[in-house]
Specification:
This protein is of the alpha/beta class. It has a 7-stranded parallel β-sheet with strand order 3-2-1-4-5-6-7, sandwiched between helices. Strands 12-13-11-8-14-15-16 form a 7-stranded mixed β-sheet. The protein is globular.
């Protein structure tokens, strides 16, 4: 893979659907996993589905108020914080945020009402809301009242295939958002909606990356000192949220990269004179956890306990390491280098698949398949050899219409328009 390889992104690759990819359990749709489920779990799952069906029926009977309900996965994340703050600042309507923990310190300061998802008050807020804003669906992604409008602010621009005709797409996507025309077409085609129902607002969480950089969070400054920070964000291979799914090759490590155990990552960072933060995907099992002089491996809870959101951390990354995740599309906004750590490319394409035919042409950075290759590429980047700069700038124009910190405000304006629909 050579950074000088001539590539054109002026024409998007055609989306392919060789098979329907599996839908994460958090979406509330129908899972296609073949995992064996115990009988007791089937009974419990059946009861829950019956409850959700009943809730959907009641929703059609309850009059709606001019109010907004927000729900996301992960529970409290940058997409939610930025969106809710913008909605509150715009004063479009009373906003209720459904959360698992109403005392989460990252959510308590946004200025809206926090209600437990599992409470009767949470269900009542959902029934009464005229507009529901979500990232993965709400209460099972059931068909709801015709008086209710759903704004699906999907959590990332898809590189890997999403499930066609999923419940969240069919029943809870009156309008959705994208960062550019190519992703708008992919989402519209996947969910069977018109392009006029996809707004090019940008993703609210990306506003964090576009604001002037503050000093590193205290904990990061202490451990990294003046060393460059490498943030490593692998996607999941085996989902542990609900029904188990397996995509690609599960290496049994936090990095999901061949040979990159915690000890190996620590040794590589010591050699490079860098500090690495490995952040485990919220759908992945945290099989490793460490806190060493040159690296740390964190899950969502550990990061929250440090008082830092993921995109606040990402805003301080000197280099991003990732794989099949779409986070690199967001990181393009920073203008900083990206290295792709993919050791299961063929298997992942066979089990999940991509929207783009030519991964080499798509990815604006070197693709490495082993830890030695990753270490060499990071050494080059940290040494000032940024031969992929032009490719990243080309990719930025392809993947982002807006390059500013106004995405959350544009989403708030979209929600206001949905509220005004008769």
């Amino acid at each position: 893979m050579n950074g000088e390889r001539p590539v054109s992104l002026t024409r998007p690759s055609v989306a392919r659907y060789p098979h329907p990819p599996r839908q994460s359990a958090c979406e509330g749709g129908r899972s296609r996993s073949r995992a064996v489920t115990p009988f007791k779990s089937l009974v419990t799952h059946g009861a829950k589905r019956a409850q959700l069906r009943a809730a959907a029926v009641v929703d059609r009977l309850i009059p709606k108020s001019r109010s907004v309900l927000y729900r996301s996965f992960p529970d409290v994340c940058d997409q939610g914080i930025e969106t809710v703050r913008a909605l509150v600042a715009a004063d479009v309507a009373p906003v209720t945020w459904l959360v698992d923990d109403v005392n989460d310190p990252l959510a308590t300061g946004v200025g809206c009402r926090l209600v437990s998802t599992r409470s009767p008050l949470g269900l009542w807020a959902y029934w009464r809301a005229k507009v529901v804003v979500h990232t993965h669906g709400v209460f099972g992604s059931r068909r709801a009242s015709k008086a209710k409008r759903f704004v699906n602010i999907w959590h990332g621009m898809p590189v890997k295939l999403l499930e066609r005709a999923s419940d969240v797409g069919r029943f809870q996507t009156d309008v959705t958002i994208a960062t550019s025309a190519v992703h708008a077409r992919h989402l519209a085609d996947t969910w069977g909606i018109g392009l006029d129902r996809v707004e090019l607002t940008g993703l609210p969480r990306n506003d964090v990356l576009m604001r002037p950089s503050a000093a590193r969070p205290g904990w990061l400054g202490e451990v990294a000192d003046d060393r460059p920070v490498v943030v490593w964000l692998p996607t999941f291979r085996r989902s542990v949220n609900g029904t188990t799914t397996v995509e690609g090759i599960d290496t049994g490590t936090a990095t999901q990269f061949a040979g990159a155990t915690g000890g190996a990552v620590e040794a590589a960072m010591a050699e490079l004179g860098a500090y690495c933060v490995v952040k485990v995907h919220p759908l992945a099992e945290q099989v490793e956890s460490w806190d060493r002089p040159n690296s740390v491996c964190l899950g969502d809870r550990a990061l929250r306990e440090r008082g830092t959101t993921l995109y606040e951390l990402l805003s301080h990354a000197d280099v991003l390491v990732t794989d099949h995740s779409s986070v690199w599309i967001d990181f393009l906004l920073t203008g900083r280098p990206i290295v792709f750590s993919i050791s299961d490319r063929d298997r992942y394409e066979a089990t999940r698949g991509y929207y783009f035919d030519d991964l080499d042409a798509l990815l604006p950075g070197p693709i490495v398949s082993d830890l030695d290759g990753l270490t060499r590429e990071l050494a080059d980047v940290l040494g000032g050899d940024d031969r992929w700069d032009a490719r990243r700038r080309e990719a930025l124009a392809f993947h982002h219409l807006h390059v500013d910190a106004g995405s959350a405000d544009r989403v708030a304006a979209l929600v206001a328009r949905e509220l005004d629909r008769s």
